[in-house]
Amino acid sequence: VIRAFLPVLREQRGGCFLNINSDCGIAAHMDGGLYSASKHAQDAVSKVLSQELEPFGVHSVSVHLANIRSHFNAHQHYTEKVIDDYAHIRALRARRGNRSPGNPRKVVEMLLELSAMVHPPVDIILGGSGYRKIKKVLARDVKNLIDWEEVSLDVDTWDESDASDGLDGNAVVL
């Protein structure tokens, strides 16, 4: 879809891609590793597009849906092989069911609003449970970043013994 419409949007110097994503694109679900990985990738593509298309007035928004009432879970199939160690995950799935609080009509209204915005956000989270989950994950990630700042930045430092090893800064020797 992006490949088909990008030339038109670039030529008209405006437009917006709404990439329908999931809260899992930022905060992975423990019971959906592969799904979460695909949503992380989709989020990355949307954010890169946002950067690349900005000079043309074209926007890319990653819309992270969270627990919007739909038939999404109605057709999930699980492996018949049951591993007792993962019973808690199956119980979580069973409790979740299809009792999602999110209103699909409001999602559509917001998508229409986003598509008409002059300066839409790069990301938006639609659904209270996803918002709360992502806020918690981002706070944890910021804390982790700060806690490990010294180690992260230390990798960029060189001392005299490093300079005498013959490396010119372009080679890596393991």
Describe the structure.
It is a single chain. This protein has 174 residues and is mainly alpha-helical. 49% of the residues lie in helices and 11% in strands. It has seven helices and three strands. The chain has a three-stranded parallel sheet, with helices on both faces. Helix 2 links the parallel strand 1 (15-22) and strand 2 (58-65). The protein is extended and about 65 Å long. The termini are far apart.
**Biggest sheet: strands, sense, closure?**
3 strands, parallel
* Backbone CA Rg: 22 Å
Uncertain runs are none
One letter per element, helices H and strands E, the order comes to: HEHEHHEHHH
SS class = mainly alpha
Record the strand order, biggest sheet: 1-2-3
Identify the overall geometry.
extended
Terminal-residue CA separation: 43 Å
Helix content: 40-55%
Mean pLDDT: 87
How many helices? The count is 7
**What portion of the residues fall into strands of 2 or more residues?**
5-15%
* Strands, count: 3
